[in-house]
Amino acid sequence: MKVIFVISLLSLASAYPAEEEEPNFENGDPMLREDLFEGDIVIDDNLLSLLEGRSGADSNPKILWPKGVVPYSFAPQLGQKTRNLFHKAVAHIQNKTCLQFRETSAPTARIVVYPGKGCNSNIGRTGRTQTLNLQPNNPSGCEFFGTIVHEILHAVGFLHEHTRSDRDSYVRINWNNIKQKAQHNFRKRTPSQNHLYGGFDYYSLMMYTEYAFRNR
């Protein structure tokens, strides 16, 4: 089954569950790095292929995880809090989709979770060991359920909801309120760059916050 079809099965009411503390972004949102595509996506051949309209996440078999099985492992230095939240996040995704996550140390193409800078991932499967960074909370970091689900969904092939080709029918972008050098992060995709399954989801975990990259 194609990975993109899991979008119709995700019923995610909120990025941050009521029982979880909300992120502290006083020192900046770690999901919004200006050197990455749209703040948290690693620029690689998968992404460039998609942006050039050569293939979408649902039509490029190289970007999909074979048989819907996603192998992953943890870097030795990753803290226990992050590991626990990652396990919670993958259990949530497995419960809502046909994807299965398998922790493994085998030398195979897999996601390796690191306590690196920011919260970021590749789009889909790269065919090799790929890094998913989850910066510890100190005080701003990625150790939040919604944030981790967001990055995992990037790793299985999802892009951001707010850059859908039809987004202007649902939201208004206040360009004057966005840092000029960050405005490229809000460019919507063309129809050839995405295939839409279902309507626009205002509550999607793949949507920016309303003040992302704002002028201060």
List the helices and strands and how they pair.
Layout: H1 45-51, E1 69-74, H2 80-96, E2 100-103, E3 111-114, E4 119-120, E5 130-134, H3 145-155
Parallel strand pairs: 1-2, 1-3, 3-5
Antiparallel strand pairs: 4-5
Helix pairs in contact: 2-3
Main attributes of the structure:
alpha/beta; Collagenase (Catalytic Domain); 3 helices; 10% strand; disordered N terminus; hydrolase; metalloprotease; Peptidase_Metallo; zinc
Protein architecture, described:
The chain has 216 residues and is an alpha/beta fold. It has a domain at 45-193: Collagenase (Catalytic Domain). It has three helices and five strands. The protein has helices spanning 45-51, 80-96, 145-155, and strands at 69-74, 100-103, 111-114, 119-120, 130-134. A five-stranded mixed beta sheet has the order 2-1-3-5-4, with helices on one face. Helix 2 (80-96) packs across helix 3 (145-155). The termini are far apart. Residues 1-19 and 22-27 have low confidence and may be disordered.
Short description:
The protein is an alpha/beta fold and 216 residues long. 16% of the residues lie in helices and 10% in strands.
Order of helices and strands: HEHEEEEH
How far apart, in Å, are the first and last alpha carbons?
44 Å
- Beta-sheet strand percentage? 5-15%
* Structural class assignment: alpha/beta
C-alpha geometry:
globular
Q: Characterize the largest beta sheet: strand count, sense, and whether it forms a barrel.
A: 5 strands, mixed
Fourth CATH level, the homologous superfamily of one domain? Collagenase (Catalytic Domain)
What's the CATH topology label of one domain?
Answer: Collagenase (Catalytic Domain)
Physical arrangement of strands within the biggest beta sheet: 2-1-3-5-4
Enzyme class: hydrolase
GO biological process, one term: proteolysis
Subunit structure: Monomer.
GO molecular function: metalloendopeptidase activity; zinc ion binding
